[in-house]
Amino acid sequence: MWSLTACSNEAEEKLPLVQVASEQNLSTIALPDITRQPVRLTVARVVNPRFKKLSDLQINKILLRSQQMVKQYFDIEIEFSEFETLSIKDVFKHLDPQVVTERRGEIVDIDLIDEQAREVMQQALFKTLSNYSGNRQNVIDYAQPYLLQPEIRQKDFIGLSYALVDTLVSRLGYWKTQRASDGESVFDSNGYHEWVWWDSLGYSDLAYDVMITNQLVASAEYYAMDVHSSIRGGITAGTTTYNKNTALNAYVYIMVYPMINDSSLLTTLRQDESYSDDQIINYSAALLTHELGHLLLHLGHPFGNNSCIMSPTVMLNYRDWYDKLDAERCAIGSSSEMKPGAASITFNRSW
Fold it and tell me: What percentage of the chain carries pLDDT values higher than 90?
């Protein structure tokens, strides 16, 4: 996922939209100049002690594999810093109080979802889907088999957005039943699982280009929700979003919780009971490479091209996604979504 807007010039069905606070006073960051290579990226590992975590060796192998894949898929030389390890508690202390105040209302309380909340969520999803109007049928086909009621065929983005809300709300409820290694719910009052706060860290004083976390990020919002996170039940495995403190004016996070934890729910989403060490490294590196395509080139999501590293993973089936990747069948410039600048990373200039 990314906190940005894909470009399209094609007409789409219309629906009145409500603008939330985060979408006011928006500006777009410039496509970065990456002619001087290798592009150096600073890295932090963000650890929640309640969950399983990657070893130092695994982190270093993921970074090395991603470095290779960025060259393979994008022909860009990158160099990662040695990673720093940060506690999630300390990271979230950096959130800007003004941003927290203004964005708290953009988090959906999953215990209090009424019809009005569903309507606002539907409008947020419809707005995101409208950005894919040039690739409408491929987006519908991507989501259709994984909707809560897949037998009801969706014909347009209005219907799909309602179906995605139903799917997201139902499956997000599953995570409330999941337990961390300490026996407590994976969701707690700290809000570390809320995507809004990960989308807001760039307004703090943190200056990392890449964050790799073992924290589960699964939530619902009143803005920027996307099709792939919705069919998973609000799981956002990675995001590229604004960061005022980095040279690229953005940062990425990936979360490896689905790679290193095992449960019946994850087995269903992954279609694998567990992953080997090599699978964890390769799939995490591919996920990071996907986000770096957003970060370095502002690439979009070419739905329908299952060979493309920039196509979002279906559910959490990383094995199927990774095994189909083919750089030659998804070259830079090969489609509108694979053109540099296809998507725009936005930020609120008043924050």
Answer: 87
Which is more confident, 176 or 62?
Answer: 62
Which region, left, alpha or beta, applies to residue 239 given φ > 0 means left and ψ of -120 to 50 means alpha? beta
Q: How far apart are CA 349 and CA 27, in angstroms?
A: 6
For the chain, the structural domain boundaries read: 4-348
Confidence band of 13 (pLDDT split at 50, 70, 90): low
CA distance 302 to 336: 8
Mention every residue, 6+ apart, whose C-beta is less than 8 A from residue 215.
46, 48, 51, 88, 192, 193, 255, 257
Rounded CA separation 264/268 (Å):
6
Answer yes or no: are the C-beta atoms of 298 and 343 closer than 8 Å.
yes
Average pLDDT over residues 111-115: 93
The vertex-332 CA angle with 134 and 245, nearest 5°, equals 90
Q: How far is Cα 126 from Cα 218, in angstroms, rounded to an integer?
A: 20
Look up residue 298 and give its amino acid. Answer: H
- Within 10 angstroms of residue 88's Cβ, the number of other Cβ atoms is 18
In the chain, DSSP assigns E strands to: 4-6, 26-28, 39-41, 43-47, 78-80, 84-87, 210-213, 238-242, 250-255, 343-348
CA distance linking residue 49 with residue 177, whole number of Å: 19
Write out pLDDT tens, residues 319-341: 999 999 999 999 999 999 999 99
Amino acid found at 282: N
Task: Give the integer Cα–Cα distance in Å for 117 and 123.
Answer: 10
The DSSP string of 248-310 is TSEEEEEE-HHHH---HHHHHHHTSS---HHHHHHHHHHHHHHHHHHHHH-----TT-TT-TT
Q: Alpha-carbon torsion 233, 52, 2, 351, what sign?
A: positive
Question: Which residues neighbour 246 within 8 Å (Cβ) at sequence distance 6 or greater?
Answer: 42, 202, 207, 208, 209
